[in-house]
Amino acid sequence: MVSMLCTVPHVLLSCLIPPANLLVIVAVCQLLRKHPGYISGYIYVLNLATADLLVGVMCITEALDDVLDGDFDRSKSFCLLRISLSMTPCIGSILTLLLISLDRYLAVRLPLSYHMLPKKAPVALSLMFLWMLAFLLGHLPLIFPSLQQSNYTGYCRLLSVTRSEYLYTLCFGVFAPSLLVLLCLHVSVCSIAYAQHTRSPHSCAQPRPLRARLRHFKALRTVLFVLVGFGLSWGPYLVGATVQAACRSCDLPDTLKDVLFILGETNSLLNPLIYALHSRDIRSHLAKLLGCRRRGRVQPVASSIHTMSGGSWPRSSWL
């Protein structure tokens, strides 16, 4: 029964995460060919879907390990490699959320000059740094043997092959700061967007307070989905690590730690729903890929080009 607590979720995640993110990757690639000018937004979502796809692939190996009772990873070195390959895309996914939030913050903070900022070089450098950092943090137990458990019993789980210090590094060096920065960035985006709207002359010329409030609450709802999805996925894992770090005598069961980590992996299934399906363009391409674009079921995609002060650039539709 204890083994089934990990086996069933791993099997479900391995069946759901790869197809969901693969569809998003195909849809975003089509959008990049259609609108090559909007580099940063689509590239970051493409990177997010790729990282989440890798998480789903590693869930397949974990599901096979659960079904076979760990017969193929009795070796400590192989288990460390599998744990590192599982952690690297998880960290990459979390860091990509930060890049998307930072990109949206700049778009709202600098609405007139955002389209004039260089895109290709900063995006390439940021993604290169992201994956280097994710690879380094994910492979810390292989780089520093002091983070490895000395008495490996053949049960390949995070805290069965690595020491608690590695868990604390992940929680307080990646998960907790990411959650805090996400919260600050999205609160700033909402406050700036609302302040700009209240100062807009259109709000005085056209008395539509109800519609304005609906637009504001729609953006706030998307922000709420992002924070709730990330918090519900990785929050319990962070709380468990905090409890164990603060109370040395409180030794949480390994099965509970595994379940909390699996809950964190579900964030890779929520991401395509939150970030991709809230974009009308991506949602429309997904509908085409799934063959469900019928009359009355999918609304036509609004034009992705807005003109302002004589210039034009693709419109952001993440909020």
- The secondary structure category is mainly alpha
Topology as a string of helices (H) and strands (E) = HHHHHHHHHHHHEE
Give the assembly state of these chains: single chain
Total beta strand runs = 2
Low-confidence runs of at least 5 consecutive residues: 203-207, 294-319
Radius of gyration: 22 Å
Task: Write up this protein.
With 319 residues, this protein is mainly alpha-helical. The protein has twelve helices and two strands; from the N terminus they run ααααααααααααββ. The protein has helices at residues 2-34, 39-67, 76-109, 120-138, 140-143, 158-161, 164-199, 202-205, 209-246, 254-265, 267-276, 280-290, and strands at 305-308, 311-314. The protein has a two-stranded antiparallel ribbon with strand order 1-2. A hairpin with a 2-residue loop joins strand 1 (305-308) and strand 2 (311-314). Helix 2 (39-67) packs antiparallel against helix 3. The chain is globular, with a radius of gyration of 22 Å. The two termini are 43 Å apart. The model is unreliable at 203-207 and 294-319 (pLDDT under 50).
